Amino acid sequence: APSHATTWGRALWAVLLTTLGSVASQPLGGESVCTARPLAKYSITFTGKWSQTAFPKQYPLFRPPAQWSSLLGAAHSSDYSLWRKNQYVSDGLRDFAERGEAWALMREMEAAGEKLQSVHEVFSAPAVPSGTGQTSA
Description:
alpha+beta; two-stranded antiparallel ribbon; 17% strand
């Protein structure tokens, strides 16, 4: 069974991911349609700074060590949301937050793209196996 620190770290990562996802889904300046030509290309880099020096009280002293799960995200329109206030999250998001398993969440995102035509691209990047390091997509 995962340690409390691992579960906490994954939950924190899921909150970070959903927060970034909800911020990115808001249209700027009242514009709801992208008019960029050619299509915009994005990159994202996550830098983990979870070290025993930086967080002495929250750093796990026993196995497994501090770590970050894989990065998962989507470019989407305002028709799609990963979660909504005062509602339960999907099984896929719960699995990702609790166990770091991304497959069900990726399938849910892709299905929303097919159904709503609102998820334009799903992307992922490898996990950061220690509390410090980088991953990019």
